[in-house]
Design goal:
The chain is an all-alpha fold. Helix content is 78%, strand content 0%. α1 packs antiparallel against α2 and α2 runs antiparallel to α3. The longest helix has 24 residues.
Length: 87
């Protein structure tokens, strides 16, 4: 998987925007939405750490695997009936 600074920056921006949009939906937060918000927040923390690390070192295979796994998680959230129902 190719992971360059510009693509990673765009991914980081979009993940931040998705997390903020989900957090700004009307309260209370129930089941599927809570699951999605917690998952996206956790993913964003990991991406923030990668962004900081990339300032001092090159991306490693483990870093690329983490980002690829995030893509699989996003697909799962998009297709999960429980999440989709509560959004």
């Amino acid at each position: 998987m190719s992971l360059n600074p510009e693509a990673f920056r765009l991914y980081h921006q979009r993940l931040t925007a998705m997390t903020a949009a989900l957090d700004n939906l009307p309260k209370p937060v129930f089941h599927g939405r809570a699951c999605a918000l917690g998952t996206l927040t956790s993913m964003l923390r990991g991406v923030n750490k990668l962004a900081e690390a990339w300032e001092t070192r090159a991306m490693t295979a483990v870093d690329r695997d983490d980002v690829a796994r995030n893509g699989l998680t996003l697909r799962f959230l998009r297709e999960d009936e429980w999440v989709v129902r509560d959004l």
